[in-house]
Design goal:
Elements (H helix, E strand, L loop, with lengths): L3 E8 L5 H14 L5 E8 L5 E4 L5 E2 L8 E2 L4 E6 L3 E6 L2 E2 L7 E5 L9 H8 L9 H8 L1 H10 L7 E5 L7 H8 L3 E5 L9 E3 L2 H12 L4 E6 L3 E10 L3 E3 L3 E5 L6 H6 L4 E4 L6 H17 L4 E11 L12 E9 L9 H8 L4 H20 L6
Parallel strand pairs: 1-2, 1-9
Antiparallel strand pairs: 2-3, 3-6, 4-5, 6-7, 7-8, 10-13, 11-12, 11-13, 14-15, 14-16, 14-18, 16-17, 18-19
């Protein structure tokens, strides 16, 4: 059987560059080499593309403080309708024609619909959501408004723009309470996020968030549990059993996710009663479909405990809120998305195979659509 040539696209112009490198390392180690021939294409922080060698496409150690892209490969260019072709000093070189691309890119210029549009123009199948689903999943403001309109519960939030007037801290806390979270609207991996406890932390948090985006979202702080659910499929979608993240820092920060092995405990499956676990799965699938996602996503939830009313017995009930969706979740060795499926009986290698097959199936379906009258 002829192997399928899989272009693994990684790195990128994003503050999540290093996370992408580590995700790519893990995918390359786990991909089924009897079925697939990986073709490594790294993107540096300035946006240049390089053809990498399997044995040395990354440099540095095995953690995100040291890892970096090896920029010693041949430059690569994308030619619409013709696939990928490496170019060095005007001389074309030969690489295998790509059958499918796995864009293991996180954040802007990779997870926001930009690279997906480029791959569509190049007429290449690719893993993950298309242009619309990727763009909706990246923008926390638009995402939350669409979910809210679909009847999916989300936390209270406000949106600020860099060219607009910033509301006073007291006005924001009157609407959202205290403490609160300040986030770039289009960023992942907890980059640029701050938990604000008082007025002294408010403006520095906004300044930091506006470093990464021209739009910032401010959210109420939900006191409760953090749950995550993995989703897989195109038209026929399945959801994993929920997992729980228990941060050992004040919140699930970038450092807690990727730099500190003890920054959070991952409980898989989460300790939930059957009805609540099923509700998480149902909301994960509904969120996935509402936001026009395909292939894969991880949906993050808050389980907020209601305060017991005075004079009433029991401990109160809980509210389940969708925090956000991640259309290209991390694939590092400690990432929740592959761990959730491994707990459900789908190995890391099998998961990669399914994702590639989903990408090819969707591409063939789209090829049957008319493009002229």
């Amino acid at each position: 059987m002829q192997k399928i040539n899989v272009g693994i696209l990684f790195g990128g112009r994003s503050a999540e560059h290093e996370v992408s490198l580590e995700s790519a390392r893990n995918v390359c180690e786990a991909i089924d080499r009897e079925k697939f021939n990986p073709v490594l294409i790294g993107i540096d922080k300035s946006g240049r593309w390089f053809l990498g060698e399997d044995s040395r496409f990354l440099l540095g150690g095995g953690n995100l403080r040291e890892i970096r892209l090896n920029e010693g490969g041949r430059p690569v260019t994308l030619v619409p309708g013709r696939g990928l072709a490496p170019v060095r000093a005007g001389e074309a070189g030969a690489i295998p024609p790509l059958d499918v691309v796995f864009p293991i890119l996180h954040g802007p210029f990779g997870e926001d619909g930009t690279i997906q549009g480029l791959l569509k123009l190049a007429d290449i199948p690719f893993v993950g959501s298309g242009v619309l689903g990727s763009a909706l999943g990246m923008d926390k403001d638009v995402m939350k408004r669409l979910l809210r309109d679909a009847g999916i519960p989300v936390c209270k939030f406000l949106v600020l723009r860099s060219h607009g007037q910033l509301p006073p801290y007291g006005e924001v806390t009157e609407a959202l309470g205290s403490p609160l979270f300040v986030k770039p609207a289009n960023m992942g991996s907890s980059v640029g996020i701050a938990k604000v406890h008082d007025q002294g932390e408010y403006l520095p948090a906004l300044t930091e968030a506006f470093r990464y985006d021209s739009k910032v979202i401010i959210e109420e702080c939900i006191r409760g549990r953090e749950l995550e659910c993995a989703v897989l499929g195109n038209e026929d979608v399945i959801a994993s059993a929920p997992g729980e993240v228990i941060p050992r820092r004040e919140f699930y920060s970038y450092d807690a996710k990727y730099l500190d092995e003890h920054g959070a405990a991952l409980i898989i499956p989460a300790e939930l009663d059957g009805a609540l676990a099923e509700r998480v799965r149902e909301l994960a699938v509904k969120t996935f479909k509402t936001l026009c996602c395909e292939g894969l996503s991880r949906v993050d939830f808050f389980l907020r405990k209601r305060e017991k009313e005075a004079g009433m017995p029991g401990d109160g009930s809980a509210d389940l809120l969708v925090n956000e969706i991640n259309t290209m979740p991390g694939f590092t060795r400690i990432s929740m998305y592959p761990k959730l499926w491994e707990a459900g009986g789908i190995s890391y290698t099998e998961l990669i195979t399914r994702l590639i097959e989903l990408a090819i199936d969707r591409f063939h379906s789209e090829q049957e659509l008319a493009t002229s009258r």
